[in-house]
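Researcher: We're reviewing a set of sequences before deciding which ones to prioritize for further study. For each one, I'd like a predicted 3D structure that I can look through quickly. This is Purine permease, putative. If possible, include the structure in C-alpha cell form so it fits the rest of the review sheet.
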Amino acid sequence: MGGGNVEKAELINTLLFVAGISTLLQTLFGTRLPVVIGGSYAFIIPAISIALRRNTSSNTVFLRPHQRFEQSMRAIQGALIIASLFQVILGFFGFCRIFGRFLSPLAAVPLVILTGLGLYAHGFPQLAKCIEIGLPALVVVVLLSQFLPHMIKSKGHILQRFAVLFSVAVVWVFAEILTVAGAYDNRSPNTQISCRTDRSGLLSAAPW
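Model: Here's the predicted structure for Purine permease, putative, in C-alpha cell form for your review sheet.
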C-alpha cells in the first residue's frame, strides 16, 4: 500500500473520524438501532482487498512509497464514492423502504452477522497475540453491551449503542498504563509488537 508512519496515521485518523461521525448520525438521527453501528466499518473489507490487489500488481512502478500510498488511496476513494452513490440513489427513490417491508428481523440478523464475520479473519486472531489486552477488551465489550444495560437504565440506551466505543477507550488507557509501567520490557519481540502502544510510531507521527 505504500507510505510510512505519517501516512498511516493520517489514514487511521480519517477512517476513525468518518466512521465515528456516521455512527453518531445513525444512532442519534437514523433508525437508532445498535445494529447499524456495524455499517460504519463495512468499507474496511473492500479497502483491504483493493490495497492488497495493488500490492500484487506489477504493471505500475512507483518511485516513492508516498506515491504508491496516494495511488492506493485514490483507488479506494473512487470505489467508495461509486458505492455510496449507488446507496444514495436507492435511498432517494425509496427502494430501501420497500425492501425493508420484506426484510424481517429474522432475515436482518444473518446480514449483520455476516458483516461481522467478514472481519473475523482480520481482527479476532489478533486477540491471541496479546492476551493481556485482547481478553480484557472482549470482557469489557460483553459487560457494556449485554449486562450493564440491564443493571443501569440509561436514557437513549447509551451503553448498548456505544459499547464498542467505550470499550476501545477503556482498553487503550489500560494498554498505555501497561506500556508506561514497563510490563513488556522483558517480553519477547512478538509480544512487544502486538501489545505495546508506542511500537508503531503512529502516535508520534500523527499531526496533533
